[in-house]
Amino acid sequence: MTAEPVRGGGESGRELVREVLIHGPVARAELGRRLRLSPASLTRLSKPLLDSGLFVEGAVEAAGAVGRPVRPLDVRVDGHRFVGVKLTGDQAFGVLTDLRARTLASVDVDLDGRSPEEVVETLVGLVAVLFASGAGAGAWADVGAGAGASGGGGGVRAAADPSRAGSGVEAGAGAVRGAGVGGGVRAAADPSRTGSGVEAGAGAVGLAGVGVTVGGTVTGQRVVRRAPFLDWREVDLGGMLAARLGLPVVVENDVVALTEAEHWFGLGRGVDDLAVLTIGAGVGYGLVVHGRQVITPDTGLGLGGHVPLDPSGPICPEGHRGCSTAMLSTPSLCAVAAAELGRPVPYDELLALAASGDPAASGVVRTAGRSLGRLVAAVANLGMVGTVVLSGEGVGLVDVPVAAEELRAGLAADRDPEATEVRVLTGDADFAAWARGAAAVAVQSWIASLGA
Ligand SMILES: [Zn+2]
């Protein structure tokens, strides 16, 4: 199920693919300026990419009042498939995506066990289920081909997006839950087009790579040095999984991958300087400066999760009073809410109660919103970025009006009134965002391998 190789034209060619993937459709003049390439060089580098079908030319655009018409360059997003998987301590969340890490199908699976061998087995099964679901999506992708990036993608998504595929059908096999694959495939299946399942899809669109992310430190995009949720140290997950799948596999820290996804394909697409903050089981922080994410030997330790925010706040598991984990992680907020309401309160219920005006819940959410505003201000002040993307499964916090209000107030209080306004962009409170991050690093790794 491997995709056809694409000739990339060396380092300059890979840079060109990267720019078109992030910014496309993009005018040739703009590409030449960004990459410092002459029109002749750009034409020479583009030609094999157009010939191979990785690039497509967009609709003709007039270049100013007197300029001759130009055709912008874009990538053909539905020509390649990727799988991204986020591993937690007890589950694997997987998505099948196109070349811009857009979700075509998703599945989540319970882990039978946490040993590396057991997890690899689970991942092999998950990739197979997702790839099989792509047989339908791939067939449907033909329908949208040539309709432009958003048109084609929209068609595929409507076919296989689990949220639109009707009931969450039990997929049957083992612990694989029907987060859409059963329903998705069935919804997409057109007997005249899909033919014989996986083989039909494999012939149409191959799987180009797999990305897996974990909360923890990863070396060389391959070896999990330490993953506390899985009790792992020095596990060659990338090597083990690649050997089983016969496909390129890239392993990465989950926040690093999510930051890459937001920068290349998400809310921060094309923004050269931005920070990503994630709220969920923990609090994560990623930073992109001059178009590249800042990676250090400490990346993966989650240091942004322990920034002091409120001297009167609760204590985090590492003993810090009022740090970002204590003030914003979903377990900490649920613990505070349980103490306030005198009963266990799941996170979604906490947000719903606050939205409906429950005084105790509103108080908890208001305090969290204020803390988030302070954290956003600290990130913008010290990271010198103008855009902060909020993501993670707990980010629904900022949809609660009292939290949003406090976020703005906390940000304003810690930001110089003369300073540029911080653009705060909020993603979906959707666990699949993490899996899309894993797919994004698989896409990047695939591009890095072009022409190699
Ligand atoms: Zn802490």
What can you see in these coordinates?
- With 452 residues, the chain is an alpha/beta fold.
- The protein has 3 domains: 66 residues, Winged helix-like DNA-binding domain superfamily/Winged helix DNA-binding domain (Arc Repressor Mutant, subunit A, Orthogonal Bundle), CATH 1.10.10.10; 198 residues, ATPase, nucleotide binding domain (Nucleotidyltransferase, domain 5, 2-Layer Sandwich); 157 residues, ATPase, nucleotide binding domain (Nucleotidyltransferase, domain 5, 2-Layer Sandwich), CATH 3.30.420.40.
- The chain contains 16 helices and 16 strands.
- It is globular.
- Zinc ion binds next to helix 11.
What are the SSEs and their pairings?
Layout: H1 10-23, H2 28-35, H3 39-51, E1 55-57, E2 73-75, E3 81-87, E4 91-97, E5 103-110, H4 116-144, H5 149-160, E6 176-177, H6 181-188, H7 191-194, H8 198-204, E7 207-214, E8 217-219, E9 223-227, E10 232-235, H9 237-245, E11 249-253, H10 254-264, E12 274-279, E13 283-289, E14 292-293, H11 324-328, H12 330-341, H13 347-355, H14 359-383, E15 387-391, H15 401-413, E16 423-426, H16 432-448
Parallel strand pairs: 3-7, 7-11, 12-15, 15-16
Antiparallel strand pairs: 1-2, 3-4, 4-5, 5-6, 8-9, 9-10, 12-13, 13-14
Helix pairs in contact: 1-3, 4-5, 4-6, 4-8, 4-9, 10-16, 12-14, 13-14, 14-15
The structure holds zinc ion (ZN).
Zinc ion (ZN) binds at residues 306, 316, 318, 320, 323, 325-326.
* Distance N to C terminus: 20 Å
Tell the overall outline.
Answer: globular
Question: Oligomerization state of this entry?
Answer: single chain
Mean pLDDT score: 84
- Count of spatially separate domains: 3
CATH class of the largest domain: Alpha Beta
Strand content: 15-25%
The CATH H-level superfamily of the largest domain is: ATPase, nucleotide binding domain
State the helix count: 16
The fold-level CATH name of the largest domain is Nucleotidyltransferase, domain 5
How large, in whole angstroms, is the Cα Rg?
A: 23 Å
User: Which residue ranges are poorly predicted, with pLDDT under 50 across at least 5 consecutive positions?
Assistant: 137-203
